Amino acid sequence: MSETVYQQHAYRSNQIPPQKPRPEKTLAQRLLSAGQRMLPWSRPTQTVSTRTAQVSPSQWQKMKATAKNQECFWNEQTLEGLTGNIWVRVYLVFSGLGKVVILFLTPLSVIVTSLLYLISFGDLHVKEFLFIYMTYIFLPAVIIWGQFELYNRGYWKPKLLRKLLDAQKKFELNRRTGMVTLYKRGGKVRYSYPFVEFDCILATTPSQQGLVNYSLLLAHRYSGSMHGVPLGVLVTPHETVAEYYRLWNMIQCYMDVTQPLPDILLLEEARPKDPTTAAYDQQTGRNPRYWRDMSDDAYAEAITQIEAKQSKMSETGPEIDIFAKAS
Questions:
Q1: Pair (70, 191) in one structural domain
Q2: Same domain, yes or no, for 175 and 27?
Q3: How far apart are CA 59 and CA 72, in angstroms?
Q4: For residues 189 and 170, what is the distance between their CA atoms, to the nearest angstrom?
Q5: Which of 83-92, 105-114, 280-289 has the lowest mean pLDDT?
Q6: Mean pLDDT of 44-58
Q7: Full residue range of the structural domain in which residue 64 is found
């Protein structure tokens, strides 16, 4: 089963083809790389970044209930980095106004109109007012908010509206093919290369307040492209250096088809769909709903325990020399 799911070029940390040496950097590249740190390749462990897309079990259940047909950005096959769309904000404002009109303004208008009608002993032109209100306010609000609810739940997504409103894909890491793809605006591919051909860079930049900001990215080793894959978007900002090492370890674990998927809430639903992970869970007797059936308080306590345990451990596994020559 796993042989048919995972393609030939899928990443396997125990079968890495020897990589060509890194090319010499140009002067411009050396100047631009000042303040950067290259994180080592390693045999990944089950150490995870607890700061990755922090979602509680109740939030997860709510998301699944309101968007049954919506795919998670991270599953057994791909990890997608998404960026927002300015039109989404406009759409959210109008849908929010529509919701206010339907749930609050309409009942209030009916009550007030009824009271004024009674006070004026029928002199108020209620029919004319209701016709205008229903035609030019209530009906547009129903259409806007109703369409938003259908769209958000994944039931109705016209191609034109989807193109306008859906989050744009910035990058994709594919576990089954072992490929890393970076996209331009409009969804066009900028480049696509095997995972093992990338270096993981931890870059530091000073903020206006004099603090140090970190960003984690994958840089293709051989193409010379100045465009990196921004892995740092997966964690909350201003994390510690150790947390970025844990994130890099978790990414390597995710891409390594000889390892089970990282054991986090976001990937729990995907675990039975990945052959290596399914076999591992069957062997260890893991509860398939371990995270999802927790209360929020129990989940927070479990995360605290993981953080305490991992603070005494190495952030990554044993280093791998990917440039080692074949014997």
A1: yes
A2: yes
A3: 13
A4: 9
A5: 83-92
A6: 89
A7: 2-83+170-310
154 versus 141: the higher-pLDDT residue is 141
Strands (E), the chain: 36-39, 78-83, 168-174, 179-183, 189-194, 198-206, 212-220, 229-230
**27 or 20: which leads in pLDDT:** 20
Whether residue 186 is contained in a domain is answered as yes
- The CA-atom distances, in angstroms, between 130 and each of 43, 108, 138, 140, 145 are 69, 13, 10, 14, 20
The reported pLDDT for the residue numbered 148 is: 76
Cα–Cα distances (Å) from 222 to 43, 171, 194, 218, 263, in that order, read 23, 18, 11, 12, 32
143 and 291 assigned to the same domain:
no
Give the count of beta carbons closer than 10 Å to the beta carbon of residue 50: 17
Asked if 192 contacts 183 with a C-beta cutoff of 8 angstroms, the reply is no
Side-chain half-sphere of 125: how many Cα atoms within 13 Å? 5
Contact 148, 98 (CB under 8 A): yes
Tell me, yes or no, whether 124 and 251 share the same domain.
Answer: no
Tell me, yes or no, whether 228 and 90 share the same domain: no
Number of structural domains the chain divides into? 2
pTM of the model: 0.76
Dist CA 234 CA 232 (whole Å):
5
On whether both 107 and 45 belong to a single domain, the answer is no
The residue with greater pLDDT, 250 or 187, is: 250
Token pair for 48: 């995870």
Query: Do 176 and 77 touch, CB atoms closer than 8 A?
Result: yes
* One-letter amino acid for residue 290 of the chain: Y
CB 180 within 8 A of CB 172: yes
Is 101 contained in some domain? yes
